[in-house]
Amino acid sequence: MIPLWMFPMAIACGNTFVLKPSEQDPMSTMLLVELAIEAGVPAGGLNVVHGGKDVVDALCTHKDIKAVSFVGSTAVGTHVYDLAGKHGKRVQSMMGAKNHAVVLPDANRVQALNALVGAGFGAAGQRCMATSVVVLVGAAKQWLPDLKALAQKLKVNAGSEPGTDVGPVISKRAKARILDLIESGIKEGAKLELDGRDVTVPGFEKGNFVGPTLFSGVTPEMQIYTQEIFGPVLVVLEVATLDEAIALVNANPFGNGTGLFTQSGAAARKFQTEIDVGQVGINIPIPVPVPFFSFTGSRGSKLGDLGPYGKQVVQFYTQTKTVTSRWFDDDSVNDGVNTTINLR
């Protein structure tokens, strides 16, 4: 999905495009490029390079590259933004996130719970727009057992197997990091409501699987709250009022996306006005806008002033040129030298 935010619009704006996929999962990108070429993208219009940091740095410093788009971790995104910016490139970096879903007790219970579980554990939590924090407001704290029961029903298996809800994480290293963060949550005093650490998938015993994991009693200073886990781990906090929920979300340094679940138009209006997050969903857990709007993550989740796709990316992939001209008739009157900006 992510490359489709970038190369179609870049090419449509008259550019050639160099695409560097993650070295951990390059095959889907290669398939997209093959389909694009089959659809008629001219030779040389869309190019692919593979590699790690050396390739990234080469792209960020190459004299012929005018703009760099990045989606990934905060650490790498900051490096790309700084290095490419120092070499005169226009840069957009979409980075880490800690997306909150705020649940009011008047929300549609079934719809909200389904949305939270799907957004929290879909793609094994490996989405920059995944819901990773649930904030239960007031009496909505009574929904925790239902949230747990629904998450327990998800099927963990290989992504190629029918009926799979939660597939593996991307690598052994990613799995180890997720398990370390789960352990930190336990040590720091959060309650492990659902433990996905010891999942075994028959036929894939050595797979990088982590099952749906649910914490309650989480506080803002815990690592499972402050860090992007990027795995199937959902943390739950409780507050008394919507004002407290808004303050909690706004105090978090990330600003990719947030959602509010409610049946109250007044509460929704208050939330979308006062929340300091770039993308807001009302009864929508993953508020990625449709393509004719732009991706507007903000604060610690984004570097650069223009986002992918929509109107903003047209500005990003083009350069404004202003032409000021004046024409005269052959028999125009000579008014002499004009040393002011007033045209006569």
Structural class of the helices, strands and pairings? alpha/beta
| Residue share in helix | 25-40%
Low-confidence stretches: none
Separation of the first and last Cα atoms? 56 Å
Mean pLDDT: 94
Radius of gyration: 24 Å
Number of strands: 14
Number of helices: 11
Give the strand order, joined by hyphens, for the main sheet: 7-8-9-6-5-11-12
Question: How are helices and strands ordered from N to C?
Answer: HEHEHEHEEHEHHEEHEHEEHEEEH
Describe the main β-sheet briefly.
7 strands, mixed
- How much strand? 15-25%
- The global form is globular
Can you describe what's shown?
The chain is α/β, with parallel strands linked by helices and 344 residues long. It has eleven helices and 14 strands. It has helices at 3-12, 27-38, 53-61, 74-86, 109-121, 144-152, 172-187, 223-226, 242-251, 265-274, 310-316; strands spanning 17-19, 46-48, 67-71, 90-94, 99-103, 131-137, 191-194, 213-216, 233-239, 254-255, 258-261, 280-282, 298-299, 302-303. It has a seven-stranded mixed β-sheet, with helices on both faces. It has a three-stranded mixed β-sheet with strand order 3-4-14, with helices on one face. Strands 1-2 form a two-stranded parallel sheet. β8, α8 and β9 (233-239) form a beta-alpha-beta unit. The relative contact order is 0.14.
